[in-house]
Every structure is written in structure tokens, then in C-alpha cells.
Design brief:
There is one protein chain. By secondary structure, the protein is an alpha+beta fold. The protein folds into two domains: 40 residues, no CATH class; 75 residues, 2-Layer Sandwich (Translation Initiation Factor Eif1). It contains three helices and seven strands, in the order ββαββαββαβ. The strands form two sheets. It has a five-stranded mixed sheet, with helices on one face.
């Protein structure tokens, strides 16, 4: 193999992307796909904002989270269980019921993300 012939990613029989470094789906290593994604998006902070809705208590929105969609689903599930609230994932944006900005900011910063509170 030459210098330009390195494996960038491969897919399994079900179409899932496997990391060439660790071979996992989704990638969790610092050298592979997850590490590259962190390096590229490190300058842009995750946006966390609260938006009032018509009748309810409002929504906490988590935008620009540099994470695989499966990872977003897992994180949303973790937040919902810990907070005891409902939530959903729409177009890559995590939505949690209620004003949960402080909790989300603390959790994401502990995970190593830069967080910007909006509103």
C-alpha cells in the first residue's frame, strides 16, 4: 500500500460505518473517526438554548453536537432517564422538556465539549 492508500472507513453488511483504527461501531478511539470529528469541530461550541412553547413548559434544545446519530440517541436517553422528562431527536437537534440548560451544560462540559448558552 502506498501513502495515499490508507483505509478511511469501511461499512459492515448492514451499512454501519466501522472505524479503521479500533474497528468499532460507533468509533470511540482518539485516532479514528471519533477523534477526527472532535478535531474538526473543536472550535465550534455546542449550542444549548431554551425555547418557550405554546402551552407546555418549553423545550431545551441542544444543537451542533458533533456526534454520530446513534450517540445522540444514547445521550438523549441518558438525559431523559436522569432528569425524568420526555424528549426527542429532530433533524439532529436534541429536545428535552423543560428548562434544563444548567444540567445539560454541566454534563456536556464534563464530557469535554465547549458549550454556549443561548437566551
Amino acid at each position: 500500500m502506498g501513502d495515499n492508500d490508507r483505509l478511511v472507513y469501511s461499512t459492515g453488511p448492514d451499512g454501519t460505518v466501522k472505524c479503521p483504527s479500533c474497528g468499532r461501531t460507533p468509533c470511540e478511539c482518539s485516532e479514528g473517526l471519533a477523534g477526527e470529528l472532535r478535531k474538526r469541530t473543536q472550535t465550534e461550541p455546542v449550542r444549548v438554548q431554551f425555547r418557550r412553547t405554546g402551552k407546555g413548559s418549553g423545550l431545551t434544545l441542544i444543537e451542533k453536537l458533533p456526534m454520530h446519530p446513534a450517540g445522540k440517541e444514547e445521550l438523549l436517553s441518558k438525559f431523559k432517564k436522569r432528569l425524568g422528562v420526555g424528549g426527542t431527536l429532530k433533524d439532529g437537534i436534541l429536545e428535552l422538556q423543560g428548562d434544563r440548560r444548567a444540567f445539560v451544560k454541566t454534563e456536556l462540559e464534563a464530557a469535554g465539549y465547549k458549550v454556549r448558552l443561548i437566551g
